[in-house]
Each structure stands twice: as structure tokens, then as C-alpha cells.
Amino acid sequence: xxxxxxxxxxxxGSLAAVILARAGLRxxxxxxxxxxxxxxxxxxxxxxxxxxxxxxxxxxxxLATARPxxxxxxxxxxxxxxxxxxxxxxxxxxxxxxxxxxxLTEATRAGARFEPGLVARxxxxxxxxxxxxxxGLVLERLDSSRQTVRLPASMTIAADGRRSALARVLGxxxxxxxxxxxxxxxxxxxxxxxSDLGEMxxxxxxxxxxxxxxxxxxNVCLVTGPRPEGRTAIDVITRAxxxxxxxxxxxxxxxxxxxxxVLGPLAVNVRTAGVDGLLLxxxxxxxxxxxxxxxxxxxxxxxxxxxxEVLRVLQAGDLTGAPERLTRARRQAMNGKLRFNRTLRxxxxxxxxxxxxxxxxxxxxxxVRRLVTVAGDAA
Length: 379
What we know:
Elements: E1 2-7, H1 11-22, E2 27-31, E3 44-45, H2 47-55, E4 67-69, E5 71-75, E6 80-84, E7 91-93, H3 96-110, E8 113-116, E9 118-128, E10 131-141, E11 148-158, H4 165-169, E12 173-174, E13 182-189, E14 197-203, E15 206-212, E16 217-224, H5 233-242, H6 245-250, E17 255-256, E18 261-263, E19 269-270, E20 274-275, E21 278-280, H7 295-316, H8 322-348, H9 351-363, H10 365-375
Helix pairs in contact: 1-3, 1-7, 2-7, 7-8, 9-10
């Protein structure tokens, strides 16, 4: 039997696999996709995420040549404030296809085995001492055979994304009624005025992120309410850009160079971080919209906590109580940041509040710099 089975080979799943395989466990990662693969994301790692990867000696490969980001440029309809991270801290801009492939490569280098073309359909259940217990996964091969595969494991980590089939089957996740937002992402060249700052442009009803991957290529990510203007995804993005004259001018010579991606509704909540024998990690353990740019840090920090709990369980030989311990650990590590994120999102959802915030930012730009420091986990 495997020591650990991980569903999902994104940053959370691969990071957990690195930790567990380095500890000598027999680890298998499964994913429906082969890698590299494209993924809708803002393509940025904030300073907190960079520190986490550095602590695990994972800043080589494409991360060693990723574009440094010295802070954020925040704008409203009438003002903008550049804010740099303190003490020379840096984020990084890197395409998700490159980041994810690198972390998965490091997981296999550490000894984990990767099996693509397998999708998790359900937990493999057992009963021990009268209590239900997950003992691996029921998987389906995504080839012409559509073969069902039962893969047993002592512990399972569900890192299969915000639409986690495992979290849904176990009744752990749900979409909240509010907020209901959708994300639209595309790559563009020829956008003028890019710098060493990531950008977040907040407007009534939406916000637009611009992440410079190089002097030429940028990631454009728009997050809107449930009924954006436009008949197609690219139409939604271009209409949002056109509503801000100063942003529209920067796209005058721009060209979209990828098919747009759409994701939504974004927010997913979970009731607890797993069940006996299975723990949630990454976006499967709860997902919020990406305004603060810390989604990857939160996902990878959650994976680190899940991996630590798996090691604890297997060393102790007691598979009970792990979900409750992980839920408490996540609460202690993340709740302050998540409250900050919710407050900030509530603020920008109100046009009146945006106006007040703009006025305050012009009078006291240090407040904006402090917000960027907290959002970037650079405190």
C-alpha cells in the first residue's frame, strides 16, 4: 500500500509530494492532465510564496530566471499609487505552466511517482473500529479504455482544485452565495508602461490585474461580477479595458496572443479540511478570488500544513483526528490573512468605498503601501 496518494499535480499537490517524498514516503501523484499545461492564473508569486519556496530549496529552474516584482501599482478611477515591498523583498512573475511543471519535476526527483491521465472520481472507503475511513481513491483512466482503477493508500491528499470532485463527494465544499465573481484571463504583447511592479486596477464592478512576465509579454486577468458586458470572453476583457481611458491608451498597440480562459464562480468554501484518511490542500481546501495576489501562497502554505499532518499521522500510526488538527492549523496560520482579504474585497465592491479609498490614498499613500505589504505577505 502507498503511504500517500495525492490527487492533483498543481503547486499544492506537487509541493506536498516534495515534502513527503523527501521524508522517505512512498508517494504517487495523479492528475487528469499531462504537464506542462496552461492554467488561468495571475502568474505571480508574492514575497511570502517566494520565501516558502526558498525554505524548501525550490527556487532553481525557471524560478531562478523569473521576472522579479518589486511591489504593486494600485489604481482607482482617479488616482494610482505605486507601492514597493519593504526591505528589498521581491515577488516573481512566472507562467503557471512553467511553475507547475518545475514543481512536479522536483516532486518526481524527490522520489514521488506521477501518473497522468487519471481523474479522481471518489474516495476508496473502509470501516475501521466502526468509523468510516478513506483508504485511497477510485480513479478513472481518461483514455479509450475508461478503466476504473482502485489505488489504496494509508493517507490521501485531495489537491484537485477549486472544483474538487473529492471535496464535493464527501460533502466538504460548497459555493457561497456571495461573492459571485468570474475571472477572464489572456496573454498580451505590446502593452506600454510595464515596469517591475505588478498592477491591480480597481473599478466599479470589476478589477483588472496586469502581471509583466517580460518587457513584452503580460498576463491580463479581469475579475467581474456575475453578468459582465460582452458576448465573448475577449469582448468582456476589451470592454473593461476601454472603460478606463488611461488603461485603454496603454493597450493601443497591444495584441492578444492566447485564447482567453474563463473561470467561475470563483469562491469555494469548505466545512472542514478533510475526513479521516483524506486531507484537503490547495484550492480544494477553499478558494477566494485573486485580488490580493496571494492565492498561490495560501495554496502552497495549506499544502505544507497538510503534508506535515500526513507525516504526523503515519508516524503515530493513528489515522483519526487529522482533519480537525489540520483545520485548526489552517485557522491559526491563515485566518488573519483571510479576514484581511475579505475586508479588502468588500471595500472594492462598493463604488462609494472606492472613492473614499482613493481620497484616503492620495492623502496618505503610506496606507496603500501598508496594504500592499500585508497583501504580499511581506511584513
